[in-house]
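Task 17 of the worksheet. Students: predict the tertiary structure of the chain below and write it out as structure tokens. Keep your answer in the requested format; marks are given for formatting as well as content.
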Amino acid sequence: MQRVIVLGSTGSIGTQALDVIRANPERFEVVGLAAGSNREMLDGQAIDFRVEHTALGADAAEQLVRDVDADVVLNGITGSVGLGPTLAALRAGRTLALANKESLIVGGDLVKSLAAPGQIVPVDSEHSAIAQALLAGTQHEVRRLVLTASGGPFRGFTREQLARVTPAQALAHPTWNMGLVVTTNSATLMNKGLEIIEAHLLFDVEYDRIDAVVHPQSVVHSMVEFIDGSTIAQASPPDMRLPISLGLDWPNRVAAVGTPIDWTVPHSWTFEPLDTNAFPAVELAKTVGRKGGTYPAVFNAANEQAVAAFHDGRIGFLDIVDTVLRVVESHEPDGALTLDSLADAERWARAAADRLIAAR
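Model answer:
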């Protein structure tokens, strides 16, 4: 029986995790729940799962992780506010099922230095797919990681077309049902950039050996190419319950958590290169990842500000990544990587992004 704390329980990842747990009461028990602001829904979940310990807000979630005994902490919080709970889970010796990619990307070496081998289990579908494929070989046999991207709602658009898209169009993702920030990041391909940084940190593979490829069907979730020329791909219909279930009890699989592919009918899967001119976020992310230090924190914070401004109608779609680029280019790191330096860098990046946005 895995005792589980679910952080971000009222969001997309959290509610799907609770679906998995509800369907498998003999394997999982919820011992703690935390949400960002939806107290009413959180209280309903606590009643449904008979959970005594709940928290509202990131600071309270961090305290919950420290105080409540658990085997697994699923961090489904959105944004860099998830860093504190991530660090708390690692310090407490819990297995961290990580859906909050921002905490690893922003925390970087601070997070990695706390994590024991195997303590962080990725929940993003791409990184879960890579973790599964890596079981087919050893670390020194890996030649390349290939992350797949749906291409979002604007696949095939030129920069001229992208200049005219609306917030409503950016939220119309063709495959996944996600929150506002993640869905917008998928439209700009910023999400894929963040995932490349995450893949580097999770699997210790250099950036020049991590690629992204557009796969509109979202059935192949990512691939690992090995030195003998073979490629191992993980494929399943798009359903986050599968990687969530693996995160809750890695590497053990949960029966009937997803619907398998029907191999008795025809399928057509396509793969195409990224248009880095129309979608420069991925190459920018690689540059930021190579710089390391506080650069990823600046990159992420500036993006969060720009996404909010886009949805408020203050900037256009192309201005999101352009704003992030200008903030990153003006960043001057100061000192060693610490929680204080990360917090200072984030505050500076948000203020710098806000100034650029106000000037447009």
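Marker's comment: Residues 339-359 form the longest helix (21 residues). The mean pLDDT is 94.
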